[in-house]
Specification:
Elements: E1 2-3, H1 5-33, H2 38-67, E2 72-73, E3 78-80, H3 95-103, E4 108-115, E5 121-123, H4 141-146, E6 156-157, H5 158-165, E7 172-177, H6 181-191, H7 199-202, E8 203-207, H8 210-218, E9 226-229, H9 237-244, E10 250-256, H10 257-265, E11 273-277, H11 282-289, E12 295-298
């Protein structure tokens, strides 16, 4: 956990004072240079002072905004993206990497899910680390379960995942996929129908489009939380608001960091919790947290 209030406030206070000092110094310099022409010096100085004060407004607004946004960023604000980086690799989706992050106490982990050649749910990004397979040539569930990742780690089947999550009752999984989300959810729900695992409370579901949203809602799944992820369709801020602001099921907008920054810079309001991805810089986490972002998708702990 890091407290950003006093640190960021003092940093921006210094910047604020430097800017003001420079502006005053230039103003005084102009007065002195034009002292021999008093008639015009006041006019010119005032002409300079007015735009200078106008240009100072953003600095004043930034300073006062940061003063009211002190608080703590903790691991609860971090979402481990795509199963997290492990032994130097991203998107690994190995049993060992998942249990490592669960043991560290992370309570939100995003995983990628795909369907095998015989229609079973497994965790993998795009089969990168399963030798001999890809999106066009998928393994069967038996082939997947028997394979190894990087020659030594174990892949995550849906059955193993559910069994493991029972040992970590506070952990929630955010569901990402390159397959059709409604079809994948149907397989997942059916896969736990005879177990005591509450998938509707433990899984957070990405919605990738308004059409996805309508189709998933028509199934009446009682998932406690849905996130709209904007990386596939890339809706504008006005489109996001039009489609989802009134959708109570959608709790969070998950945006790419540059898209979120463009929305903020343009003054667009997004009236849900905000998550941004993929973040590898703690200074950007501070910057975005102070502007209301709640969740940060990261490959590992950067705090």
């Amino acid at each position: 956990m890091i407290n950003i209030g006093d640190k960021v406030n003092s940093e921006n206070l210094i910047v604020f004072y430097i800017v003001i000092a420079v502006q005053i110094s230039i103003f005084c310099l102009i007065i002195r240079l034009l002292a021999s022409r008093r008639k015009f010096s006041i006019i010119i100085a005032i002409g300079y002072l007015i735009p200078t004060l106008i240009l100072s407004v953003p600095n004043i607004r930034l300073f006062t905004h940061i003063e009211t946004c002190a608080g703590d960023i903790s691991d609860s604000n971090l979402v481990i993206h795509a199963g997290g980086r492990y032994v130097g690799y991203e998107y690994l989706h190995a049993q060992e990497s998942l249990t490592d992050y669960l043991d560290q106490g992370y309570d939100r982990i995003e995983l990628d899910f795909l369907l095998t050649a015989d229609g079973k749910v497994v965790c993998t990004h795009m089969w990168e680390y399963i030798d001999g397979y890809d999106m066009e040539n998928r393994p069967t569930i038996d082939e997947f379960a028997k394979s190894q990742i990087l020659g030594e780690y174990h892949p995550i089947t849906f059955k193993w995942l559910i069994s493991t999550l029972k040992e970590y009752p506070d952990a929630k999984i955010i569901v990402d996929t390159k397959d059709d989300m409604p079809a994948l959810l149907e397989k997942m729900v059916a896969g736990v129908s005879k177990s005591d695992f509450d998938i509707f409370d433990r899984f957070i579901v990405y919605v990738f489009s308004y059409e996805d949203y309508l189709e998933i809602m028509s199934k009446d799944y009682p998932f406690s939380e849905y996130w709209f992820a904007n990386y596939k369709i890339n809706y504008s801020a006005s489109e996001i608001s039009r489609y989802f602001d009134g959708a109570e099921e959608i709790s969070t907008y998950c945006l790419q960091y540059n898209t979120w920054f463009d929305f903020i810079r343009s003054g667009n309001e997004l009236n849900k919790d905000i998550a941004i991805h993929t973040i590898r810089n703690v200074d950007f986490v501070k910057f975005a947290y102070l502007r209301g972002v709640k969740y940060f998708l990261v490959d590992s702990n950067i705090l």
